[in-house]
Design goal:
The complex is a heterodimer of chains A (about 900) and B (about 110).
Chain A lengths: L1 H17 L1 H25 L4 H12 L2 H11 L3 H19 L1 H30 L10 E8 L3 E4 L1 E2 H10 L3 E14 L8 E8 L3 H5 L5 E2 L14 E4 L1 H8 L9 E4 L2 E8 L13 E4 H4 L2 H5 L4 E9 L5 H18 L9 E6 H41 L1 H9 L4 H37 L13 H23 L7 H6 L9 H37 L9 E7 L10 H16 L3 E7 L10 E6 L11 E8 L3 H5 L3 E4 L13 E5 H7 L9 E4 L9 E9 L13 E5 L7 E8 L7 H11 L5 E6 H8 L1 H35 L1 H9 L4 H33 L12 H27 L3 H6 L2
Parallel strand pairs in A: 5-10, 7-9, 16-21, 18-20
Antiparallel strand pairs in A: 1-2, 1-11, 1-12, 3-11, 4-5, 4-11, 6-9, 7-10, 8-9, 13-22, 13-23, 14-22, 15-16, 15-19, 17-20, 18-21, 19-20
Helix pairs in contact in A: 2-3, 5-15, 6-13, 6-15, 6-16, 7-12, 13-16, 13-18, 13-24, 15-16, 18-24, 18-26, 18-27, 19-22, 24-26, 24-27, 26-27
Chain B lengths: L5 H17 L2 E2 H12 L10 H10 L3 E7 L5 E7 L1 H29 L1
Antiparallel strand pairs in B: 1-3, 2-3
Helix pairs in contact in B: 1-3, 1-4
Classes of the chains: A alpha+beta (about 900), B alpha+beta (about 110).
């Protein structure tokens, strides 16, 4: 029966879909017919014409409502109503373009920021790595019991793990590196970020080259010919995407390498900017690869199925402990191993900031929603009479609610579409300007992001629509129709609702402001932290001499450097110049163990540790590092003879407490310092420096560049004015000396620091941006609510003024009314920020999460902005002309 | 707005079907018959007949057709369909059952 019924009604349904107008006309005719007949009958009963018509209409009932009811009994009436609502909504919004555009803009900002950040978080943190079975890929570390649970791994330890572990199907080595590709075919020499990898890295990850072949075990030996894999982008950019590149020879660091393949476009490992891969056992001397106390590698492992992370860790730790026991005499052997998922390793540093930013955009989104809800409520209030008339004419309550929801859905959809466009633009910009961000290549707007956008739009529409819809009440119908501002009490509940919305909005704004304030302060502290050297008018550039032509140890490199310094110092405008392996702010680079010859022997397996730098005698003056005691290097001591060392103040304090280090000797290398190794005389003490901005100064020892052991370094040029203008002349000097030498990272000290603080400045800028937008939104909200309240109370204010209330008092009253929600919101927001800022502790540098200055500044800013937003409507209210106000009723 | 309660609405459908089962009628005539039969028990405005008629038509129980009336005017005549007949039988039986049950209960409480 059911089915038959359904089948039977199909033509009916089709008819009511297609012949809608016809059905309307039919209904009209049918109803008119009925009424006409009733009129005829009434006339026959002896009524007058007009009387008969009215009586007929009365007995018939509410025509409009009946028409509606009949319509709703037709099929598709739901869809029709929806279309109708859509039309109505669009028309209503088109009538108030300023309202509509403000609301859409507000939503677009909220949704745009939210979608953009979600896309980044999804791309970077949530998407699985693009490798085969990525859940089994682990990053392996040694545990340094002193200070680092994620210490990088020594070649010797890797070899032992590789041989004896039972938990991993394969282990691969990775070492970040840098190489120079020689000039060829009109291309300039170029410095590239590269990686030295063991031959099985790609099979461990489960990746194959897009072109050519993978490394073989034979490639990964000292005796093998040089082989290299290129990244897709390098292949396209430098070699014009020529497929014939495979098996061709290119010169890297002045040595011949056969290109064996090109990696797929998406492949970026271990860093986003890695461009070349070479076999690690071919590149590094066998001695380094076998050392168990020289930590320089990352190890990627693939866990066997059914083996847990903990089991893998225990398995490796047993091996580490055995190696440790076998080398009690060495100071830097670690007794345990650590394992964590590869994804966690890759995103560890960006996880917290991204989640904080995501939370911030969530706040911004909520604020936007509340603002739109607020606007809609205000609009609903303005349209109260219209609504009341419609209700009186038979418009159903549900219908009105639906209309509100439709309106807010329209706004949200338009805002969402605009927001998506904004997000797209923002992401394009981010991907281009932040190539260094981990996994930046996996940030895309995809189906999941689209779904997220739709969800966010729906949420916004529902929230804003429902809040305003809830203000519709059938009951107050009569009051509203009678309504004049004298009866404004009916709207008090709406004012209350709007005020509550405002309180929450202000609260959220305060949370954002506090977060932004803390980050700003932390960033300022970071930028202001004393590096221990000059930062103004200092130019730096990095030079690497290819080992094939400049062998170390030997005189070639040091001769080059000396000539270079001589020529650079002769350039006009150059005050001082120096050369060092790494300047402050350039990173850790190198540390080595040593012992003091004059002190009693250290217990077996222990050693002192300090950063190691090689510098020329002019470096300290050029860099502005103060020479506290003693003297700089004696340049006439060369090669084996240059056995001088200069130590930092901190090293002197840590390792020579209460004695004079000058003239003492330190010994490096060898086995714990008893035999072998080299002995250096301490000739000077210099000021401390920070290897990284934001890190505490560390003990540092400087050896003489004249020793001839180094073939790379950073040239430092100090000028009395704009140092940047010296970049070209200095580079030309280098080009003339060796045309195959690439120069990289030509940066002033300030630019270099800007680069290292990029992350922080980025996070700070974004959060400050969000905070400013939300402050603006909150101000708009306050302004709107107070303007509305003032206009509602014009009559009351008029009476007050007529009865002699001073204008100042009215102004004061309006101001307190407006500031009340702001103060409440501030209290709420401060309490919430105290909690929220704890989450940011890791991101702050020398700044307490509960920094009283930040909290005070936020409170002051908020209250003054709120007062500004309130003062205009309050002032306007106090200027009301009592006669005018009373007359307008 | 006079909206018939659910009970009356259901009854209205049943009454309409029953009247139409006797002969096809147009709206006006149907409303007259309704008043005639039920007297003033069904307090329904004349107009509320039309939403009910249109609903029944959409459900396929009655069929509508424009036809000339006695004095050469056009009117929309409603007649019962095959499906409608069956539905009426079912509804009538249902009504019988329920009213018997209810009056039984009413008698019980009166004793």
């Amino acid at each position: 029966m059911r089915f038959e019924n359904w089948l039977y009604t199909i033509p009916l349904r089709l008819r009511s879909l297609i012949r809608r107008n016809r059905m309307d006309a039919d209904l009209e005719e049918e109803l008119r017919d009925h009424i006409d007949r009733q009129i005829e009958e009434n006339l026959a009963r002896g009524m007058g014409r007009e009387e008969a018509r009215l009586a007929a209409l009365r007995t018939f009932g509410n025509l409009a409502a009946l028409r509606e009811q009949t319509h709703s009994s037709w099929s598709w009436s739901g869809a029709e109503l929806l279309l109708n609502d859509l039309r109505l909504g669009t028309r209503a919004l088109a009538r108030t373009p300023s309202f509509a555009s403000i609301a859409i803009l507000v939503i677009a900002l909220g949704i745009g920021a939210d979608v953009a950040l979600f896309t980044v978080v999804r791309g970077v943190l949530l998407k699985p790595l693009p490798f085969r079975d990525p859940g089994r890929l682990m990053m392996l570390y040694e545990i340094n019991p002193k200070d680092d649970p994620y210490n990088i791994v020594s070649g010797g330890m890797y070899a032992e793990w590789n041989k004896y572990n039972k938990s991993f199907s394969s282990l691969a080595l990775v070492q970040d590196s840098e190489n120079t590709v020689a000039a060829s075919g009109g291309q300039l020499p170029e410095n590239l970020t590269s990686a030295k990898v063991s031959w099985n890295l790609l099979t461990t990850l489960g990746v194959a080259p897009a072109l050519g072949r993978d490394f073989t075990a034979e490639d990964d030996t000292l005796a093998a010919n040089g082989t290299v894999l290129l990244s897709w982008s390098l292949w396209k950019r430098r070699y014009g995407a020529d497929r014939g590149i495979v098996n061709r020879t290119i010169y890297i660091d002045a040595k011949p390498y056969t290109v064996i393949g090109v990696m797929p476009e998406w492949f970026a490992f271990p860093r986003p900017e890695t461009q070349m891969w070479t076999p690690v056992y071919h590149e590094n001397p066998a001695k380094i690869m076998a050392m168990v106390d020289n930590h320089m590698f990352r190890v990627v492992g693939r866990l066997n199925p059914g083996v847990s992370l903990e089991q893998g860790k225990a398995d490796l730790s047993v091996i580490s402990q055995r190696v440790f026991d076998a080398h009690r005499d060495l100071a830097f052997v670690n007794p345990a191993a650590n394992v964590r998922p590869l994804l966690e390793h890759m995103v560890g540093a960006v996880k917290r900031p991204l989640y904080v930013l995501l939370a911030a955009t969530g706040c911004l989104f909520l604020i936007a929603c509340m603002n739109v809800a607020n606007l809609l409520v205000a609009r609903a209030v303005a349209r109260r009479k219209e609504q009341a008339i419609r209700t009186a004419l038979g418009g159903g309550w549900l219908r009105l609610v639906r209309e509100r929801l439709m309106e807010s859905l329209l706004l949200s959809t338009a805002g969402g579409a605009l927001g998506l466009a904004l997000a797209y633009g923002a992401l394009q910009w981010l991907v281009h300007s932040r190539r260094d961000l981990t996994r930046v290549e996996s940030i895309h707007i995809d189906a999941i992001v689209a779904m997220f956008t739709v969800g966010v739009i729906a949420l916004c529409a529902l929230f804003a629509g429902l809040v305003s819809a809830l203000t519709i009440r059938d009951k107050s119908l009569l009051t509203t129709l009678h309504g004049s501002s004298r009866y404004a009490s009916g709207s008090q509940s709406q004012a209350k609702l709007r005020r509550r919305l405002l309180i929450v909005e202000v609260g959220l704004t305060v949370v954002l402001l506090t977060g932004a304030g803390l980050l700003m302060k932390s960033y300022e502290r970071l930028r202001a932290s004393d590096l221990g050297c000059a930062t103004e008018n200092v130019l730096t550039m990095r030079i690497g001499l290819p080992g094939a032509r400049y062998k170390t140890p030997g005189p070639a490199a040091v001769n080059f450097f000396n000539t270079l310094l001589e020529k650079v110092r002769a350039l006009p405008g150059v005050n001082q110049a120096g050369l060092v392996t790494a300047v402050p702010g350039q990173g850790w680079w190198e540390d080595d163990g040593f012992r003091v010859v004059e002190h009693s022997a250290l217990p077996q397996g222990q050693s002192l540790d300090a950063l190691t730098r090689w510098a020329d005698s002019g470096y300290f003056a050029a860099m502005g590092i103060p020479m506290l005691r003693g003297r700089t290097f004696n340049d006439s001591l060369r090669l084996e003879g240059a056995k001088e060392v200069i130590i930092s103040e901190k090293l002197a304090k840590s390792f020579f407490p209460g004695e004079d280090p000058l003239g003492k000797h330190i010994k490096t290398g060898g086995d714990g310092g008893n035999s072998g190794g080299k002995i250096y005389t301490i000739v000077g003490i210099v000021g401390d420096m920070r290897y990284d901005i934001g890190e505490a100064p560390k003990e540092t020892k400087y050896f003489s560049l004249q020793e001839g052991t180094q073939n790379y370094g950073t040239l430092v040029i100090r000028s009395s004015h704009d140092a940047e203008t010296l970049a070209m002349p200095a580079q030309r000097v280098i080009q003339r000396m060796d045309r195959d030498l690439p120069v990289s990272d030509v940066l002033t000290m300030n630019q270099l620091l800007g680069k290292t603080t990029l992350d922080q400045s980025f996070d700070t800028t974004l959060l400050v941006g969000f905070a400013i937008v939300s402050l603006l939104l909150a101000a708009v909200g306050l302004f709107g609510v107070l303007s509305y309240m003032a206009s509602q109370r014009t009559g009351e204010i008029g009476i007050r003024l007529a009865l002699g209330a001073p204008r100042g008092q009215v102004l004061g009253k309006m101001l307190t009314d407006g500031l009340h929600p702001a103060v409440m919101g501030l209290a709420l927001g401060l309490a919430a920020s105290a909690e929220a800022s704890r989450l940011m502790r890791d991101m702050l540098y020398e700044t307490q999460p509960l920094d009283p200055w930040v909290f005070a500044a936020v409170s002051a800013t908020l209250i003054s902005v709120a007062a500004l937003a309130c003062i205009v409507p309050a002032w306007r209210a106090s200027r009301v002309d009592p006669v005018q106000a009373l007359r307008t009723e | 707005m006079s909206k018939p309660s659910d009970l009356v609405q259901g009854t209205l459908d049943l009454l309409v079907l029953k009247i139409l089962a006797l002969q096809p009628l147009h709206g006006w005539a149907l409303s007259l018959r309704l008043k005639q039969i039920s007297g003033d028990v069904l307090q329904v405005s004349d107009g509320s007949l039309y939403p009910a008629l249109h609903k029944l038509e959409q459900q396929g129980w009655i069929h509508a057709e424009w036809k000339p009336t006695e004095n050469n005017r056009r009117a929309k005549f409603y007649s019962l369909t095959r499906l409608g007949k069956r539905h009426l039988e079912w509804e009538a039986a249902n009504w019988e059952r329920i009213s018997t049950a209810i009056s039984g209960v009413m008698r019980l409480t009166e004793v």
